[in-house]
Write a structure and sequence with these properties.
It is elongated, with a radius of gyration of 56 Å. Helix 4 (211-217) links the parallel strand 5 (197-201) and strand 6. With 603 residues, it is of the alpha/beta class. The strands form eight sheets. The chain has an eight-stranded parallel β-sheet, with no helix packed on it. The protein has a four-stranded mixed β-sheet with strand order 8-15-13-11, with no helix packed on it. The chain is 12% helix and 26% strand. It has helices at residues 3-24, 55-65, 74-77, 211-217, 326-331, 578-602, and strands at 82-85, 110-114, 139-143, 163-167, 197-201, 222-224, 245-247, 254-261, 266-268, 273-275, 293-295, 299-301, 335-344, 353-355, 360-368, 375-381, 386-393, 400-402, 411-417, 421-423, 429-437, 442-450, 456-466, 470-472, 481-487, 491-493, 499-507, 533-534, 568-569. The protein has six helices and 29 strands. The protein has four domains: 33-247, Leucine-rich repeat, LRR (right-handed beta-alpha superhelix), CATH 3.80.10.10; 254-368, Immunoglobulin-like; 375-437, Ubiquitin-like (UB roll); 442-507, Ubiquitin-like (UB roll). Residues 374-436, 444-506 form the MucBP domain. Residues 509-532 are annotated as: Disordered. It comes from Fructilactobacillus florum DSM 22689 = JCM 16035. The chain crosses the membrane at residues 576-599. Pfam families: MucBP.
């Protein structure tokens, strides 16, 4: 029984060892089966199918090595120095869709990919990017693969590249347009220190402005740019072409565009000939010393002008039964002239060979009307001050123009100086819109101060202001009256309708113990109150206590004990004037003083 735990443990260990042994055995890869592996795990013995996923590419590499697909290893790929895709005369007639794994051909120095050798051409979604990962590559040729520039390899990574050739020579069927490389391809050719030969044929390249930068970093000795769409070869004049072989022939699809003012042209109404001055065509594509010759007509019969404004060559050589009159010619807003011409360029000095035959261009000349003088439009008030920035209209002589008035708050249009519509001419023109300021609507608010009977206590107050602005009224203090009610809004805005605000007051009850004030010019406000006397505290003890303190409260019958503070006292009402009361009190004070002195001397 004690051996059972040991038996179970041995059984578990045995199972684990068996599983580990199975997993640890190398996998047998069947033909065309791909097993993804980390780059660090790939050795010379790694099957090719583990690094090359495209089956067509697997078959091409196996055919090149003359081995079965499943027998080819990564080490075999490193022995290939030259590769044609597809192989000339080989069994595989297709192109790969993906070139993943070509980087393991690390001794490959020449690669030729030709869609013409493929029975079905190139796949639409062919991926050429991995070709840039072959650092040993010295000679690369890609032909018949119609992809745009962005889908081409980044050639600048191939620093050992000596020869680069790109061919897209094919004429598309009617109604079909092939994708082709364009001027952007030059961005992928910068910084190639060993490039001596560059061929680009049959593409959509129409400018070689970037070529001098490529030549500055590459020892080019051969340049073939034939059968493209280049019409301006002037960048060659800035390059060192010493000892170079240059071919710029067969530029049959190139186009040149010119804009020539009407005043530079000559039209003969009698012969119907439009003469294009040759000097107007110079400076376009100037090469080296500017010499060039045109093989083509520079005079055309405008009688064949159709309604589209394009001259079309006829069998009898630009003849017409309905000639264009001088007036009709002067009224044309634009005119497109198409003609073919062969540009004959001089041979650059120092070159080894220079080919340029059959460079036929489609030349387009747009005859533009002469530029007219501007029409300046002003928006001003009656004082000549601008209400808005001036506007400038431009156009060709004879072309119509139209101006419009603007709206400005609180202004209305008064008059216009100049023609609001017309035609541009050889003389500058001005149009001035003059505005007058509108008088703003005024509102009125009348403020009244009345008693309960509607009688005015104060003269009415009239407030005026612009409609929509704020107004504010206030109550007034009126003696013996207190504010009772307010009719209307004390605060508000002026309107187009008249408004009235009435402050209504009620009269206060009269005080029988308080005489009405009688202001005189000699009164000094603040010195004393009418009918009141301010008595110093030192004299309070000598005054007869029969004086009565007048209460300011509503119950005059209530009295208070005398306080030794400063008080206002009122003598009994006798009808005497306040001055008489004062004189009497002064007399009492003097009598008391004299009596006191007499009493002291007696002792």
């Amino acid at each position: 029984m004690q051996n059972k735990p040991n038996l179970k443990l041995s059984l578990i260990i045995g199972i684990l060892l068996a599983v580990t042994g199975i997993i640890g055995q190398p996998l047998v890869v069947q033909a065309n089966q791909v097993v993804a592996q980390n780059a660090s795990e790939i050795t010379d013995q790694t099957p090719m199918t583990a690094v090359v996923p495209d089956q067509t590419f697997q078959q091409i590499l196996a055919e090149r090595l003359d081995k079965p697909v499943e027998a080819v290893t990564v080490g075999d790929l490193a022995t290939i120095s030259y590769l044609e895709i597809p192989i000339w005369g080989g069994k595989i007639k297709q192109l790969p869709q993906n070139f993943e794994g070509i980087q393991y051909l690390n001794h490959l120095n020449r690669l030729n990919i030709a869609a013409a050798l493929a029975s079905d051409g190139a796949p639409d979604d062919i991926d050429l990017s991995k070709i840039a990962d072959i650092p040993s590559l010295q000679n690369l040729e890609i032909s018949g693969i119609f992809v745009p520039s962005e889908r081409m390899p980044d050639f600048s990574k191939l620093t050992n590249l000596d020869t680069l050739a790109l061919y897209q020579l094919i004429t598309a069927a009617p109604g079909y347009e092939y994708q082709k490389i364009d001027n952007q391809i030059f961005e992928k050719m910068m910084g190639l220190p060993n490039l001596t030969s560059l061929t680009i044929e049959g593409t959509n390249i129409d400018s070689i402005a970037a070529l001098p930068a490529i030549k500055a970093s590459s020892p080019l000795t051969k340049l073939d740019l034939s059968e493209n769409k280049i019409s301006d070869f002037s960048p060659l004049g800035t390059m060192n072409l010493q000892g170079m072989d240059i071919d710029i022939s067969l530029q049959k699809w190139g186009s040149r565009y010119y804009e020539i003012p009407r005043s530079s042209l000559h039209y003969d109404q009698q012969t119907h000939l439009l003469t294009i001055p040759a000097d107007q065509l110079r400076g376009i594509g100037t090469l080296f010393n500017g010499e060039k010759s045109w093989m083509g007509k520079l005079a055309y019969d405008l009688g064949s002008l159709d309604i589209s404004g394009e001259l079309k060559e006829t069998d009898d050589g630009w003849q017409t039964d309905q000639p264009l009159t001088q007036s009709q010619f002067s009224q044309l807003s634009s005119l497109s002239v198409r003609f073919n011409g062969n540009l004959d360029l001089p041979t650059p000095p120092g070159v080894n060979s220079f080919q340029q035959g059959n460079n036929i261009f489609a030349n387009y000349i747009t005859i533009e009307p002469d530029a007219g003088q501007p029409v300046t439009v002003y928006y001003r008030d009656e004082n000549g001050d601008d209400l808005a920035p001036a506007e400038t209209l431009t156009g060709s002589v004879g072309q119509n123009y139209q101006t419009t008035a603007k709206e400005f708050p609180d202004y209305q249009l008064k008059k216009v100086a100049g023609n609001t519509t017309g035609q541009f001419s050889e003389q500058p023109q001005t149009v001035t819109y003059v505005y007058t300021k509108q008088q703003a609507d005024q509102g009125t608010v009348t403020v009244k101060y009345q008693d309960a009977h509607g009688q005015d206590l104060l003269p009415p107050l009239t407030l005026t202001g612009q409609v929509g602005t704020d107004y504010q009224t206030t109550a007034c203090e009126i003696p013996n009256y207190k504010l009772r009610t307010v009719q209307g809004s004390q605060l508000g805005k002026f309107t187009s309708d008249e408004q009235t605000i009435i402050y209504q007051y009620e009269q206060l009850a009269s005080d029988p113990f308080k005489p009405e004030p009688t202001p005189t010019p000699t009164d000094e406000p603040g010195n004393q109150k009418p009918g009141l006397l301010q008595v110093p505290e030192s004299l309070l003890e000598t005054i007869d206590n029969s004086l009565t303190e007048v209460s300011t409260k509503k119950h005059p019958q209530q009295t208070r004990a005398p306080r030794r503070t400063k008080h206002w006292w009122r003598l009994p009402q006798t009808g005497a004037a306040p001055v008489t009361i004062v004189v009497g009190l002064v007399g009492i004070v003097m009598l008391v003083g004299v009596t006191g002195l007499w009493w002291r001397n007696r002792k």
